[in-house]
Design a protein that fits this description.
alpha/beta, nine-stranded mixed sheet, globular
Length: 453
């Protein structure tokens, strides 16, 4: 039995429970999602273009549990995973397994008109607003999106009205805490109105390092005209955690999107980004870093499509792979017919710190008109032997010299983050990771004021 078949059987056996514990606006996508999955017959595997190094079918194959009755699964909130970012006063919400948990700080300090809440609650209380945006960017014809839409019952809804500048970033912490193998369908819908400004920091953690978890996440980001959106995604999970995250963004005229994904520790990760630069005069920065060791696998797949004029986009993804870890990057820039005077750049650079590490890189350009400036490039190599010799000759031990070079290699990705406190914290997290410390946020500040919606 294929991975897809087992989930379709679970849904068919429990369809009324999925609907009863969700909202009409979310339930409305299920018939189309079911039809798309029945037509596809399977999830993507290594025989499909763009998935040569990551099989979604294998990722979903284990017998993960689901939660159609929306039973609250306990988490140790007092010792939970709020990332301790110095000098960053955030609006905090948690997703404990598959349930949104707002903090008292979030509920107390949200500016008037701004919404950060459960997607189910938003769909019940403001259905027309959710229906306007939910499922509009993420194509239900894609098997990963279709399976997420079929099984989803809740998520997170962030809405910043036109002209509102959110002073504090929104911080979302995804926590796995179930005592059994568990799959969480997660969804984030972010709508930034015309002339608004918002930054979102999302962190993924696993509370139990020896329990198998699977995160199926779809993110939709709407950036209205002149809006400025920051999207920062940090993963510090466990070797037993698999993550399939698909991000879809659309930018209207003169909007700016600064997105960064950092995989610091994980098991098996596949991140996909699809950005539609739909308006003239946009700025798009899409960056990422990955640190791999042992048998960890990190795959980033990007697509930036310019369908308008006079916009700029840049992509920079860097990997440091050690042990028997593997990495993959496939990136695409498309400049459509008539989309003139655009500048688009893409770079993937990688260091293999061991003879067993492996990297797959495949950047490409699709340019359908003149009057543009576009480039792409990829390099994969080892640590600079001359630099290592130079540092050792000055009394720096080999292990420390290797750490310093690997940290320095990733710093231009870190420097591109728009939140200064997060930049400082990420530098520390990268340093800690290379020092061999296990991924754990138990030392982070406790989120004691949270309660489930």
């Amino acid at each position: 039995m294929s991975a897809l078949t087992q989930y379709l059987n679970v849904y068919r056996d429990s369809a009324p429970r999925f609907d009863a514990n969700s909202a009409p606006a979310l339930n409305a996508l299920r018939p189309a999602a079911l039809s798309a999955l029945e037509s596809a017959g399977r999830l993507p595997d290594r025989t499909d273009e763009g998935f040569e190094k990551t099989s979604v079918e294998e990722m979903f194959a284990p017998d993960f549990g689901l939660n159609p009755d929306r039973v609250a699964i306990a988490a140790d909130i007092a010792a939970t995973f709020r990332c301790d970012v110095p000098n960053l006063s955030s609006l905090l919400g948690l997703v404990v397994n598959d349930r949104f948990v707002p903090s008292a700080t979030l509920l107390k300090n949200l500016p008037q008109g701004v919404t950060v809440c459960s997607l189910r609650r938003a769909a019940l209380e403001m259905p027309s607003l959710v229906e306007e945006f939910y499922g509009r960017l993420a194509p239900v014809g894609l098997p990963g999106v279709a399976l997420n839409s079929l099984l989803l019952q809740d998520g997170v809804f962030i809405h910043v009205p036109a002209g509102v500048r959110l002073e504090r970033p929104v911080q979302l912490v995804n926590i796995f805490s179930a005592e059994f193998p568990f799959m969480a369908p997660r969804r984030i819908l972010l709508v930034a109105g015309r002339g608004s400004e918002v930054s979102v920091l999302k962190c993924d953690h696993s509370q139990r390092s020896d329990t198998h978890y699977l995160s199926s996440e779809v993110v939709e980001i709407f950036a209205g005209e002149d809006a400025r959106v920051g999207w920062y995604d940090l993963e510090e999970s466990s070797p037993a955690t698999a993550r399939y995250c698909q991000v879809f963004a659309r930018q209207e005229a003169r909007s700016a999107l600064n997105a960064c994904v950092a995989t610091l520790s994980n098991g098996n990760t596949r991140n996909e980004f699809s950005v539609e630069v739909a308006g003239d005069g946009c700025e798009t920065h899409l960056n990422g870093l990955a640190i791999g060791a042992d048998g960890e696998h990190v795959d980033n797949n990007t697509r930036v499509r310019h369908s308008s004029c006079r916009s700029n986009s840049s992509q920079l993804f860097k990997y440091v792979l050690d042990g028997e870890s593997t990495g993959a990057f496939e990136g695409e820039i498309e400049v459509c017919h008539g989309a003139r005077f655009n500048e688009a750049y893409q770079s993937n650079r990688n260091i293999l710190a061991s003879i067993s590490a492996r990297m797959h890189s495949k950047p490409r350009l699709l340019i359908y008109n003149d009057d543009v400036k576009c480039s792409h490039g990829a390099t994969t190599g080892q640590l600079d032997a001359k630099a290592l010799f130079y540092m050792q000759a000055r009394g720096i031990p080999l292990a420390e010299a290797r750490r310093m070079l690997m940290q320095a290699f990733l710093m231009d990705v870190v420097d591109g983050i728009g939140l200064e406190p997060l930049r400082d914290r990420l530098r520390h997290m990268v340093e800690r990771r290379f020092a061999g410390e296990a991924a754990s946020c138990r030392s982070c500040a406790a989120a004691r004021d949270c309660h489930a919606e």
